[in-house]
Write a structure and sequence with these properties.
This protein is α/β, with parallel strands linked by helices and 529 residues long. The protein has 2 domains: 250 residues, FAD/NAD(P)-binding domain; 135 residues, 3-Layer(bba) Sandwich (FAD/NAD(P)-binding domain), CATH 3.50.50. 32% of the residues lie in helices and 17% in strands. The strands form 8 sheets. A 5-stranded parallel beta sheet has the order 3-2-1-7-24, with helices on one face. The protein has a 5-stranded parallel beta sheet with strand order 9-18-10-11-14. A hairpin with a 3-residue loop joins strand 22 and strand 23. Helix 1 packs parallel to helix 10, helix 10 packs parallel to helix 13 and helix 14 packs antiparallel against helix 15.
């Protein structure tokens, strides 16, 4: 019999994990507590317990070419940034195309996942699930945890003195669906993540007044970047990644700072983030600066305390009258079905090797997918995690311990605490992380190797956006269509918007950048790449 793998959840991570298992000849069983796939991306009008909750206007922050699974490009007529319904439609196509649905058990909740008594030798797990009020026990050779981190809201009311005496309404952003609750009200949005800014912008169209308070500030980027190209296709190229990572820390920070302030000077809008070692992922919003400029939204520092029907901010003497508060304070990572010892979560950080494997298991037969906050598209990263994990699971049969993992266990090379330079790199650079995992399975593209065989492809890979298809050019799971997908990526990007004039092929490659890049490539050649 093949190796049996339990997959917990059928959202983005669960689907690509199930597909990864099938690709490697493992036998996945995916357990999904609801009656349908899609996880976070499946909108429901009512907030359901234990499930993520979307508001109808959510649009993806990353463009379709950067967000696609590496062997399944988006249809060319889909918009470049995807409304949640179309992203869900894509996931449905993906599940159907790769025959994933027959491996998913719907309406089935995973109650517990425990090491078997003989775990040290077999690495097996006892999994208890519940469906229709009946519990069932299973034995699995490995487990992939794909339950996400957007189900348990973090609402630290103790950090907001006086909230108990506040007479207005307050709720967590998870509860938000439609802006009509804000009609004519004075609204305070606490926290400045993507949801906070989205909600503030929507509220300001109907509210009397909207204030966002943030203690840390944030970079705000527009999806519409240089010359109207999608931000991530300009930002995430191998050339840019090489430049960012070759520069010393402060210079690299300066570059990000410069880029972020090109659209508008954050300082003048009260948004400049503190220069702390922890660079938060930027907020993607196309409207915020213009809404601040037109007085619809005001930015304030963090909350000092609430009064009956007003709020006081730090360093601001006067009270601000408020009718309704939305706490956009994020989510807690929790795995109710695991024992605490398996994944230690401290201040929202889990101790996981390469963000995937719990660091102190005797056998690497349990992996957590999608617990990473990249500065870019998360779907291809989760897919890469799944491809790596399934290889590790498989390799375990022949060779009981993967040397790289063992080495890490001995030398303690795991995720350092949150506030370190390493974290800065990982938080900011998808290309580095993807390359690392790809090199573990032998799927990392070699620019130099291609330069001789296929110069056009090599240059597109180096100067163009680092699209996921690059990781299907070779190695296990190689896909015949990868080269073609890379060479046509700009066509699919331009097709949905060039609707009035015939589409010619054009990709942004300013000549100066090409020259500089070519010199850098030569330097890289000389110093070994």
């Amino acid at each position: 019999a093949g190796m049996r793998v339990a997959v917990v959840g059928a959202g983005v991570s669960g689907l690509t994990a199930t597909k990864g298992c099938l690709e490697e000849g493992l036998e996945p069983t995916c357990f999904e507590q609801s009656q349908d796939i899609g996880g976070l991306w499946r909108y429901t009008e009512h907030v359901e317990a234990g499930r993520p909750s979307l508001y109808p206007s959510v649009i993806s922050n990353t463009s379709k070419e950067m967000s696609a699974f590496s062997d399944f490009p988006y249809p060319e007529d889909f918009p470049v940034f995807l409304p949640n319904a179309q992203l869900l439609e894509y996931l449905r196509h993906y599940a159907k195309h790769f025959g994933l649905l027959e491996h998913i058990k719907f309406g089935t909740t995973v109650i517990s996942v425990r090491e078997r008594p003989d775990f040290a030798t077999t690495g097996q797990w006892d999994v208890v699930t519940e469906a229709d009020g009946k519990q069932t026990s299973h034995i699995f050779d490995a487990v992939m945890v794909c339950s996400g981190s957007f189900s348990e809201p973090s609402l630290p009311l103790h950090c907001f003195p006086g909230i108990e005496s506040f007479e207005g309404q307050y709720f967590h952003s998870r509860q938000y669906k439609h802006p009509d609750v804000f009609q004519g009200k004075r609204v305070l949005v606490v926290g400045m993540g993507n949801s906070g800014v989205d909600i503030a912008v929507e509220a300001s169209r109907v509210a009397a007044k909207v204030t966002i308070c943030t203690s840390r500030g944030a970079w705000v980027l527009s999806r519409v970047f240089d010359h109207g190209y999608p931000w991530d296709m300009v930002f995430h190229t191998r050339l840019m990644s090489l430049i960012r990572n070759s520069l010393p820390g402060p210079l690299s920070w300066g570059l990000v700072n410069y880029r972020a302030n090109q659209w508008f000077k954050h300082e003048n809008y009260g948004l400049q983030p503190e220069k702390s070692c922890l660079v938060r992922e930027p907020v993607l919003n196309d409207d915020l600066p213009s809404y601040i400029l037109t007085g619809r939204i005001t930015i304030k520092p963090g909350v000092k305390e609430f009064k009956d029907n007003s709020v006081v901010f730090h360093n601001c003497p006067e009270e601000e009258p408020i009718d309704i508060v939305v706490f956009c304070t994020g989510y807690n990572v929790s795995f109710p079905f695991l024992e605490e010892a398996v994944v230690k979560v401290e201040n929202k950080h889990a101790s996981l090797y390469k963000y995937v494997f719990p660091t102190h298991l005797q056998r690497p037969t349990l992996a957590v997918l999608g617990l990473i906050k990249p500065l870019g598209a998360i779907m291809p990263m989760i897919e890469m995690q799944a491809r790596w994990v399934t290889r590790v699971f498989k390799g375990r049969r022949a060779n009981m311990s993967s040397p790289m993992y063992q080495n890490a266990v001995q030398t303690g090379h795991f995720l350092s605490p949150p506030c370190t330079k390493r974290d800065f790199i990982l938080k900011t650079d998808c290309v580095v992380y993807m390359d690392k995992l790809a090199s573990f399975i032998g799927a990392k593209p070699s620019v130099l190797g291609l330069l001789c065989r296929d110069p056009r492809l090599a240059l597109t890979i180096f100067f163009g956006p680092c699209t996921p298809y690059q990781y299907r050019l070779g190695g296990p799971g190689r896909w015949e269509g990868a080269r073609q997908a890379i060479l046509t990526q700009w066509d699919r990007t331009l097709k949905p918007t060039r609707t009035r004039v015939p589409t010619g092929s054009s990709s942004p490659c300013p000549s100066l950048l090409t020259v500089v890049g070519f010199l850098l490539l030569l330097v890289a050649l000389v110093f070994g790449f």
